[in-house]
Amino acid sequence: MKKTVLFLIGLISFTAVAQQPYYDDVNLTLSGIQLRDALATKVINTHSNSLSYSEIWDAIMITDVDPNNTNNVFLLYGWEDGSDGDVTNDLFRNKNNNGGNVGEWNREHTFANSLASPDLDSNTSNGPPYSDAHNLRPTDVQRNGQRGSRLFATGSGNSGTVGAFWYPGDATQGGPDWRGDVARIVMYMYIRYGNQCAPNLVADGTTNSVDSNMIDLLLEWNAADPVSPLEDARNTYHENISNATAQGNRNPFIDNPRLATQIWGGTPAEDRWGIYSGDTEAPTVPMNVMTSNETSNTIDISWTASTDNVGVTEYDVFVDGTFNQTVAGTTTTVSGLSASTTYAFTVLAKDAEGNTSAQSAAANGTTLAGGGSGNGNLYFSEYMEGSSFNKALEIANYTGATIDLNDPANMYTLKISTNGNAAWNSTYTFPAGAMIADGDVYVIANTGLAVCTGVVDDSDDTITGFNGNDAIGLFKNDVLIDILGTLGDGTTYASNTTLVRKPSISVPNTTYTASEWDTFASNTCTDLGRHTQTLSVDTFEATAFQIYPNPTHGDIVYINTKNNVQVTNVRIYDIAGKQVLTQANVTNELNVQGLQRGLYILQLQIGNQTVNKKLIKQ
User: Which segments show compositional bias classed as Polar residues (predicted)?
Assistant: First the structure.
């Protein structure tokens, strides 16, 4: 069963925000340094309550609370729901579980204390700038320590170190996007405390042409990651001085990210007030979201284009409520899915000013069972350690889909450990464009290979310079998924020998198991370049049916089963996952007269086995 975390803080408002009365005495027609200074005057003059560092605990327990569970607070840089056993990446934690110990949350100076010049606590730790509530966010204690005083810098994926720098994290791997939060906090600290908190002290990147203290990367992050409800809630709380731990001022770049563009230029950020772009109209909601071309780990989705008063620029695609990708057109392929699993797909539209539609109605899609490996991973299928340089490795693909071995999102590599070394010595990266079709293999050989040369896809002497006691690992995203030999063992397991994975083996194994392999004499390469896998019962049934016509314009669909196998039950589901038809003891005809035009999932059952097929009625 897959686990889904709905990252509420990654969701953005779907309607324009009216300009807050807080700015009524600010000349918002200014631009550049003049606008920066006008906003600085406003936030300084309205910072009427200087909170102590201890009062920040109480403020955070109100401003950063999880609306779905008011016992929790959201943790900056987190992304995971707490189910993986690693507390450092948790997205939320009990609000009373705070302090400085492992498993607790602490107060993170987003603009690090020691990076300011002078330090934020150089005057006093009992007031600003050290205890400015707009700068302090809750984080896991250990993750806070990992960030330390590292400068922010470009990266991708979830939060973490990038060399000597720190990346706050984006939504490309399913977690929340923290880039905008960080950028807007740094911008606030700059206008509130001036050169003491200049952005170039806390971020690495190109210097802005308007203001040498600004870093353009922060402007990019501000535009790329729209304001979240969490940021809005913090601003609303702190303006209201009747709140016991409110400080009286707001962060202008949360209220309207476009203010940063007006000051420093760069990619236009969302104009939440509509006073600079004149466009506050959101696009219409995408309609007719449909799924098709299911494999064991991918599903194609399409939808009807949205309309907008100016023009739609892109669409965000969500899987089970979590952001997956942004596309310019109205079709895309969602990859990295689990086999035999139902997912809900939704889409929202955006225009050039950052106006965003609501998410579409969900369309459900179910991945297939796959071609045999079940878990969607590749595996070693042949190993040849022959005379002289007759050495080769073969990798098989029975995932149900073509695999790009050099895909940055799902990167495969090989590693070797020589002569019983307890660590991997060398890494082989597949060349750009290296692909394996479903049911095919990929062969890497030594450049001195003298036999079966016509089946080699790539030559690499480092990875194929092995001896019979060298462990070799197949990795996916740097995680071991299959192995030859045993790391750190040094025992000779295959010298002057060819090993071929038995046809009954359909999944990789991170423990080398000799019984999974057939052994042949030295230099045997009869099977190199091809591999046979015995299909499981599930796989046999998944390929033993023919449904026609499909798409159908009529009322009858014919089901042809191999060897006339009896279908005990048929169920049809619409794209929302609702069962719309069921029929028992089907022969070879299925009446679909009552179905409207559209995409359906046809589920066939034989005994305790089920097979899903897509059905389109036109």
Answer: 114-128
Q: Is this model's pTM higher than 0.70 or not?
A: no
Residue 531 in any domain: the answer is no
Last residue of a domain, one of 463, 489, 520: 520
Does residue 22 sit within a domain? no
Residues 508 and 541 in one domain: no
SS3 content of the chain, % helix, strand, coil (to 5): 20, 30, 50
What are the angstrom distances between the C-alpha of 604 and each of 276, 290, 563? 57, 21, 16
pLDDT per residue as tens digits for the range 172-213:
887 899 999 999 999 999 999 999 999 999 999 999 999 999
Please give the Cα distance from 90 to 79 (Å, whole number): 6
Whether 590 and 547 map to the same domain: the answer is yes
pLDDT higher at 609 or 240: 240
Q: Give residue 604's pLDDT.
A: 74
Largest CA distance in the chain: 87
* Residue 21, domain member (yes or no): no
- What whole-number distance in Å separates Cα of residue 426 and Cα of residue 474? 12
391-396, strands of its sheet edge to edge: 458-459, 441-445, 391-396, 379-385, 497-501, 517-520
Q: For the chain, what is the domain count?
A: 4
436 and 302 share one domain: no
CB 326 within 8 A of CB 316: yes
Helices and strands: H and E segment counts in the chain: 9, 34
Match 């990789």 to its residue by tokens. Answer: 508
Using omega within 30 degrees of 0 as the cis cutoff, is the peptide bond preceding 118 cis?
yes
CA distances from 16 to 39, 232, 257, 348 (A): 21, 13, 12, 16
Residues 186 and 81 reside in one and the same domain:
yes
Among 356, 365, 357, smallest CA distance to 333 is for 365
The CATH number for 311's domain is 2.60.40.10
Q: Containing domain of residue 59, as a range? A: 31-264
Residue 263's SS3 state is: helix
Contact 501, 530 (CB under 8 A): no
Between these two residues, 542 and 447, which has the higher pLDDT value? 447
Query: HSE on the CB side for 433, CA within 13 Å?
Result: 2
Distance CA 393, CA 500 (A): 10
